[in-house]
Amino acid sequence: VVTQNLLERLYLERLEEKSRIIETLLVQSNNDWEAVLFKLLAKNFGLKVNGEAFYSLANSVDFSVVRKLQPNVKQLEALLFGQANLLNETIEDSYYIDLQHEFKYLKQKFKLQNNGVLPLQYFRLRPTNFPTIRLAQLAMLYHSEQNLFSKIINLSALKEFYKVLSNDTTAFWETHYTFGKSSKPSKKTISKSFIDLLLINTLIPLKYCYSKHKGQENHEDILKLIQEIKSEKNSIVDKFQTLKSISGSAMHSQALLQLKNSYCDKNKCLQCAIGNNILKL
């Protein structure tokens, strides 16, 4: 019971820390929750390798531009690929040339700048995680869901999130992983495991923060949702597992990350329920 209570408390602590980041972004975007969601999702779509690059891309465009382009998926793609400096080459492909023309028009219309956008990396990435594929999926998600934040706030069951977020890409990407080189046909659908990462890192913290803002803190619903998601696999969780097998859900793995980063690494054993118990023995 001590362990379970501690893990819940650690997880809620982690949510509080993520909330502070979200609140800073809210101030910067004049309380536009949809704009904040876009920035956080973009960062998440970039994963560890391209997270900061995708985040810099999202920051290079006012979300009002994304809103205006949502009905037209090709324009959304042109915006994202163009801002990411992926439309600067000479490639004899009609789709690529179309995107170049679209971006040239959008750049002039919205006075776009991308000087601060970080370069993208492909090194050691599986093709399904290439930045081109993740940007194409992000464009299709925003094309398919015109009010994504409102929809997410009203979802509660895990299967509902899977249904809303498991988008494909435009037809071009079914036969490509990069521009200029075709590949054998395959659907590039957002997988459940990737949606789990979006939920853990962005969507659940955002729901938690929003309910706090509304004065309707609902820890039970949040805890129920995170406990339905499988535990993450990483070296920190693995090391804890060798000491005691407790990590069954994403709540446990997130709590263990919080334990390591905020207590173990900072030698705060006396402020940790587990450390306290050990020291009393």
Please tell me about this protein's structure.
This protein has 281 residues and is mainly α. 64% of the residues lie in helices and 2% in strands. It is built from 14 helices and 2 strands. A two-stranded antiparallel sheet has the order 1-2. A hairpin with a 2-residue loop joins strand 1 and strand 2. Helix 2 packs antiparallel against helix 3, helix 5 runs antiparallel to helix 7 and helix 10 packs antiparallel against helix 11. The longest helix is centred in the N-terminal third of the chain and has 27 residues.
What layout of secondary structure does this protein have?
Elements: H1 2-28, H2 33-45, H3 47-59, H4 63-69, H5 73-83, H6 94-110, H7 131-144, H8 148-153, H9 158-165, E1 176-178, E2 181-182, H10 192-213, H11 219-228, H12 235-243, H13 250-264, H14 273-280
Antiparallel strand pairs: 1-2
Helix pairs in contact: 1-10, 1-13, 2-3, 2-10, 5-6, 5-7, 10-11
What's the count of strands?
2
The parts where pLDDT drops under 50 for at least 5 residues are none
- Per DSSP, the total helix count is 14
**Derived structural class:** mainly alpha
What level of helicity do the residues show?
Answer: 55-70%
- Average pLDDT reading: 92
- The percentage of residues in β strands lies in under 5%
N-end to C-end Cα span: 18 Å
Strand order of the largest sheet: 1-2
Shape: elongated
Strand/helix succession: HHHHHHHHHEEHHHHH
Described by strand count, sense and barrel closure, the largest sheet is:
2 strands, antiparallel
Gyration radius, rounded: 21 Å
